[in-house]
Amino acid sequence: MTIQRRKLKNKAINYIILMAVAVIMLYPLIWMVFASFKNNQEIFQAALIPSKWTLSGYINGWKGSGQYTYATFFKNTFLMVLPMVLFTVISASFVAFGFARFQFWGKKVFFAIMMACMMLPNAVMIIPRYIMFKDMGWLNSYLPFIIPCIFGGGSFFIFMFMQFFRGIPRELDESAYVDGCSAFMVYLRIVMPLAKPAVFSAMIFQFMWSWNDFFGPLLYINSVGKYPLALGLRMSMDVNMSVSWNNILAMAIVSVLPLIVLFFTAQKYFVEGVAATGIKG
């Protein structure tokens, strides 16, 4: 009985510690949620709970700068992010299937180049990319974000899919080949249905990184009418000399909601995908 009580006591202590750490980590988000329902004068007061709840931050914040509302910024963000997610999953999984399942001339060399690209700092590629996209006439469009996703989708995602594919038994491929399937049909009907955790993980990672990207759109997009949410939020701070913080915080909450919904919707597959790509190979 003493041992059982000790176990319960240890478990209770662990839960208390975890809850305390969770509260500390989530406090900025909790503060932002409550602050979005305050008026602009009350935000920086000590009280966490608003003395008078108001939706003015959401109503006025959604109007944006007047010429463009946040509906435009949301539309632009989805127009940029959704093709990136789709093409990343398709191209990265296709390239990874080739690396994981086939032997071909120069495979080790190409794999080494891919890994080197994954380790290359992004700051080194900023100027060459900008010059290349400028010469192609792609500036002030979403092509600098979408087109690279069609050709491989990024070294990180290729490597992640490779790790998952290596954990799928080759006997399944051989059985499909015996039944008359081509290599493409094996990829489409055998490997990809089993790779749902890796697919969801890639989708969440790419959606999150693209949705939150600030520097890329700032570099390549010049027109306010094509701004995504990240630039729209930043522009809201430059409209007037006095910043309406309740509007900005309210729109920050709204902009984060798609990420939260996506994560909790695909949480099961995301955890499975991260665990599987980390231990298999």
From TrEMBL:
GO terms for biological process: transmembrane transport. GO terms for cellular component: plasma membrane. CDD domains: TM_PBP2. It is a multi-pass membrane protein. It is found in: Cell membrane. Keywords: Cell membrane, Membrane, Transmembrane, Transmembrane helix, Transport. InterPro entries: MetI-like, MetI-like_sf. The keyword GTP-binding does not apply. Residues 74-266 form the ABC transmembrane type-1 domain. The chain crosses the membrane at residues 12-34, 78-97, 109-131, 143-165, 186-208, 245-264. PANTHER family: ABC TRANSPORTER PERMEASE PROTEIN MG189-RELATED-RELATED (PTHR43744), ABC TRANSPORTER PERMEASE PROTEIN YESQ-RELATED (PTHR43744:SF6). Belongs to the binding-protein-dependent transport system permease family. This is Sugar ABC transporter permease.
